[in-house]
Design a protein that fits this description.
Low-confidence stretches: 198-202
Distance between the termini: 26 Å
Helix content: 25-40%
Number of strands: 8
Structural class: alpha+beta
CATH class: Alpha Beta
Strand order of the largest sheet: 1-3-2-8-5-7-6-4
Length: 259
Amino acid sequence: MTKPALLGNGLLVIWGDIDNTANDEEALNDWWTNEHLPERLSIEGFRRARRYYSADESSTSISKYLVCYEVSTLATLTSEAYMAKLNDPTPGTAKYMSLLATLTRCASNVVHSAGREEFSVLKSGSVGSTIVHIVISFPPLSSDKEQELRNWAVSTLTPRVLASHHSVLAVHIVQPDDAATKTGNSSKSYDTVKVIKKDRESESGNKWILLVEFAYTKNAVLKHAKSPALKESFMEYITSLGAKVESNEVYELLCVANE
């Protein structure tokens, strides 16, 4: 029997690009890993943090980063303790956050999270070496249709993806919350960051983020991601609902830190 692979019911997902020819990327990574992650994990409710990296295949000067903060609940991401940190950024945070050319930040509720049954005996589950990050936007759905979508994600999508290959370790589906996201985005920490705003269609509808973890190299995952078995797991159904894939990226793990 599978169990949630994320440590909590909330997830903060942040991804963005940096021009590595114009900025000190090594210093950025030093700050992000050795200062910023410990600072965030010292806040009550922050359970685990992961950092990922992906080179932009179309440009050698662009580096892509993804970070996921597993939190106890969505309320953690608007808590007094967290907002105090956001509105009083350290000198390092003020300096390095502004280096990100683009940034998307989503404070999210966990719709569903499941790992391989073999890892269910472990308290903290497993963390894959590679992760597929897919952002899907839906038009406004009726409450019945939305519940049907959630049921399908739990009963059909997740088991099918987990069974698609032995290297798939976990599947997570999260739904960004507009109010919680805007609360954090309006803080002092993001004053100098170009935060990408959601378009009007997404704003009035639904957005899901699908995360699939693999115990596989990035190149191997890219080959597997193109297989009909994985694509058919969700593409046909979400297309029938009028959904579209906004972004699809494969990242490699840089580090993991627990509370």
